[in-house]
Every structure is written in structure tokens, then in C-alpha cells.
Write a structure and sequence with these properties.
The complex is a heterodimer of chains A (about 110) and B (about 140). With about 110 residues, chain A is an alpha/beta fold. Chain A is built from four helices and five strands. In chain A, strands 4-3-2-1-5 form a five-stranded parallel beta sheet, with helices on both faces. Chain A is globular, with a radius of gyration of 12 Å. Chain A starts with a strand and ends with a strand. Chain B has about 140 residues and is α/β, with parallel strands linked by helices. Chain B has one domain: 3-Layer(aba) Sandwich (Hypothetical Protein Ychn, Chain: A), CATH 3.40.1260. Chain B contains five helices and five strands, in the order βαβααβαβαβ. Chain B has a five-stranded parallel beta sheet, with helices on both faces. The N and C termini of chain B lie far apart (about 35 Å). Classes of the chains: A alpha/beta (about 110), B alpha/beta (about 140). At the A-B interface, helix 4 of A face helix 1 and strand 5 of B.
Chain lengths: ~110, ~140
């Protein structure tokens, strides 16, 4: 079974399609596929504890690994220690790791 | 383990954060010793456009040197240097159709003109591919 890394570069408040990406992650996890979300650029904005983070924390509870690009967090003044439950800061190397491992990597 | 990774880029320079993220990814892949293929199409063919020029900024009150405006052609050149330093291969191909549409024929040394057939070949010959689509 392939693993998936979904790269979310958009904030769901400005691009509703970002939530479609979260839904895709949930569906893949339900099917038993290993799946991770990598939030980058404005995609990290809902990583702050907020109404927007609840969906991400829920995904993490369902086994989706939810990662936020450390560089994007720093750019936006979001402390790694202040992320919503279930969300971890990570270097962009995570994407290279996934590509190396043969994961299906999709950019949104 | 050395692998070959392919990246497809679409965004023109100076328009989107996606370009900066793409450069970060390509840089990391090269610094980790991987061979990298880049297929630049649509506006991304201008990332390596040799005639890009820095400018002063009268609002900031800076001259060209003080403003130090970044140019993507310099970043593309730096990626080629990073590859050479690490003994990695960087094959940067600008889609010829997109180059012609935009008149972006003058590229810095390193990238070459190609076609969508190169992208197909890159996909077949690499371990994995990431397409970074344009937005809006």
C-alpha cells in the first residue's frame, strides 16, 4: 500500500480547497494508507490553536501525521512551541524523505 | 542512498511563494547528494532568464547595491554550483514552447531548452516526481 504526503500550501480561510486536502487525507487514512500532511507557506496559519486548527488536530487523532514547515512558521512569527495539539514543526527535508521513500507526494 | 528526483515548476519569478519553496526543495535535494531534474514550463521558464536586472528603490531610498534585490537567475545559477560542488547532476530544462511564447530565449548557462518530451523522460528515469502547480 503506498504512502502519501499531501503538501498544503494554502490557508483554508482564503482557499476553501485546502479543506478538500484535509478531507483527502482523512479518506486515505480511513482506507489504511499511511498519510502525512505537510503544511507550508500560508498553509501553516491554521497550525496556531484556533477554530481552524481543530480539523488538523482531529486528523492527527485519526493517525494522519500533521507537520508544519519550520521555516514557514518562523516567517509568520508562529512559535513551534505554540502549535495546536497533534501538529509538529518539521524541516522541509520531510518532503525529500518522502520522495526518496517512494511516497506519492501531491502539492496543493 | 542516491536517487534521482524530478520537479516540475510553473510559476514565473517574483509572483508566488511557491517559487521560493521550490528552490528550497531543489537545494535540499542537491545538498543531500541526489541528482535532480527540473522541468520548468509556463512562467517558470523565466526563472533562469539571463536579462533579469536588479534595480534601486526610490521608496526605500536605496541604490542598486543597497537594495540588493534578489534575482531568480542567480538562484538557478547557485543551484547549479551546489550540484557541481557535491558531484550531483542538475538537469534544468525550460519548455521550448513556453520559452517561445514568452520570448524568454536568453537563459543563463546551465539550463537548456527542451520540450514536454523531456518531462516524460525525466519521469520515467527518476525515482519520484513532484509537480508544483501554479495557483489562483
Amino acid at each position: 500500500m503506498p504512502s502519501y504526503l499531501l503538501i498544503v500550501s494554502r490557508d483554508p480561510h482564503t482557499h476553501v480547497s485546502a479543506t478538500r486536502c484535509y478531507e483527502l487525507a482523512a479518506a486515505l487514512a480511513r482506507e489504511g494508507s499511511p498519510v502525512s500532511l505537510f503544511l507550508v507557506q500560508n498553509g501553516v496559519l491554521p497550525a496556531r490553536p484556533s477554530l481552524g486548527s481543530a480539523e488538523l488536530s482531529e486528523l492527527a487523532g485519526r493517525g494522519v501525521r500533521v507537520l508544519a514547515d519550520a521555516f514557514s512558521l518562523r516567517e509568520r512569527g508562529i512559535a513551534e512551541s505554540a502549535l495546536a495539539p497533534g501538529i509538529e514543526a518539521a524541516p522541509i527535508d520531510v518532503v525529500i524523505d518522502a520522495l526518496e521513500a517512494g511516497a506519492r507526494v501531491v502539492w496543493h | 542512498m542516491k536517487t534521482t528526483l524530478t520537479f516540475a515548476l510553473m510559476d514565473p519569478p517574483f509572483e508566488s511563494a511557491r517559487s521560493a519553496t521550490a528552490f528550497r526543495l531543489i537545494d535540499r535535494a542537491l545538498r543531500r547528494g541526489h541528482d535532480v531534474n527540473v522541468f520548468a514550463y509556463e512562467g517558470a521558464v523565466s526563472l533562469s532568464f539571463a536579462a533579469q536586472k536588479a534595480h534601486p528603490n526610490s521608496v526605500h531610498g536605496t541604490n542598486v547595491e543597497e537594495e540588493d534585490h534578489p534575482l531568480t537567475r542567480d538562484w538557478v545559477a547557485a543551484l547549479h554550483d551546489a550540484a557541481a560542488e557535491r558531484g550531483a547532476q542538475l538537469h534544468w530544462v525550460n519548455c521550448g514552447l513556453c520559452v517561445d511564447e514568452r520570448g524568454a530565449n536568453e537563459s543563463i548557462p546551465g539550463p537548456r531548452r527542451g520540450s514536454p518530451a523531456d518531462f516524460a523522460r525525466f519521469i520515467e528515469e527518476s525515482n519520484n516526481t513532484l509537480v508544483i502547480p501554479t495557483g489562483e
